[in-house]
Amino acid sequence: QVQLVESGGGSVQTGDSLRLSCAVDGRTSTTGTMAWFRQTPGKDRDFVASIERETNKENYVDSVKGRFAISTDNARTTLYLQMNGLKPDDTAKYYCAATTLFSADYLFWGLGTQVTVSS
């Protein structure tokens, strides 16, 4: 099993930066693609960014391209999301997620960390 624990959220002003972290505990060798999602009350959970295991290829939703950067440490025990130029629309609860090596579904999820951006 794999456990994911997010940290690094907080309340910031427009234009500020934050770095989210996701500690990956357990059988990290079984994780595939890792990603960040975000959700606001009453809305669906939306994809933000992902990083593939074998290629380290990064993918981003258009609204964060050029402002956010996803990365992992070499051992893939920590996933990061560097967020620059934050906007009020980035306000959400951010979740870390991971697929397994055998499925494209995100089977592992953290409990989330809140990011609030005020104007």
Q: Could you characterize what this model shows?
A:
- There is one protein chain.
- The mean pLDDT is 96.
- The protein is built from no helices and eleven strands.
- By secondary structure, it is mostly beta strands.
- It starts with a strand and ends with a strand.
- Strands 2, 4, 5, 6, 9, 10 and 11 form a seven-stranded mixed β-sheet that branches. Strands 1-3-8-7 form a four-stranded antiparallel β-sheet, with no helix packed on it.
Query: How many beta-strand runs?
Result: 11
Subunit organisation of the chains: single chain
Helix content: under 10%
Category by helix and strand content: mainly beta
Low-pLDDT segments? none
Count of runs of 4 or more consecutive helical residues: 0
Gross morphology: globular
Gyration radius (Cα, Å) is 14 Å
Largest sheet: 7 strands, mixed
- β content, as a range? over 45%
Distance between the termini: 40 Å
Mean pLDDT: 96
SSE series: EEEEEEEEEEE
Task: Label this structure with key terms.
single chain; mainly beta; globular; four-stranded antiparallel β-sheet; 119 residues; seven-stranded mixed β-sheet
